[in-house]
Amino acid sequence: MLAIMEYYSYESVPMKFSTYLRLGEKNRGCVWEELKSRGTLVDIVAYCIMPTHLHLVLCQLKDGGISRYMKNLLNSYTRYFNTKNRRKGPLWQGRFKSILVKTNEQLLHLTRYIHLNPTTDGLVDHPGMWPYSSYNEYIREEGVTLCSFEKYLEIDPKDYQNFVESRKDYQRDLAKIKDLLLD
Q: 46 vs 96, which has greater pLDDT?
């Protein structure tokens, strides 16, 4: 999913991702260089891939960029998943939902919510333990670098880590209350 997320962020991809993967390493490198020269539809600001859904914070760079990106991303991953698991039909429930983020403060709190999702759901004890999230990029740990958050947020890695982890238990408690209310 991470590779698909990056691939489809570029404008006018020349082929389906599955075709790209079948190319030799040299040819993939040429395609990658061509993609980089075209620019991107979106900047990926934050992400968290959960077992049943995903959270993305995107900044649209081209008209209709988010819609095109999400269509390509979700269709590509659905085809991959269905082929791998010998199944048919939709993988995702309904259309993606989007919310306009208006302030840096709102963006900061949204990224914290997203990065705490795996701990809130009890998948890991610490957000840095979840490998399918941009959290470790934010706190400058080794791993995938997919996000362009530094263009949108000025944050010190240690301050961000404290900001996120200080609300871990609170967000878990809110999730429990939400579940009780829905029952």
A: 46
Q: Using N-to-C axis directions, what is the helix angle for 104-120 and 157-165, rounded to 10°?
A: 60
Residue 101: CB atoms within 10 Å: 18
SS (H, E, C) 51-101: CCCEEEEEEECCCCHHHHHHHHHHHHHHHHHHHHCCCCCCCCCCCCCCCCC
Give residue 118's pLDDT: 95
Mean pLDDT, range 17-41, rounded to an integer: 89
pTM of the prediction? 0.86
Q: Which two tokens stand for residue 156?
A: 């010190």
> Which pair of structure tokens corresponds to residue 162?
């404290």
The total of structural domains in the chain comes to 2
Q: How many Å apart are CA 61 and CA 144, to the nearest integer? A: 22
d(CA 130, CA 136): 9
Residue range(s) defining the domain that contains residue 171: 104-143+150-182
Would residue 125 count as lying in a domain?
A: yes
Confidence at residue 66, expressed as pLDDT on a 0 to 100 scale: 95
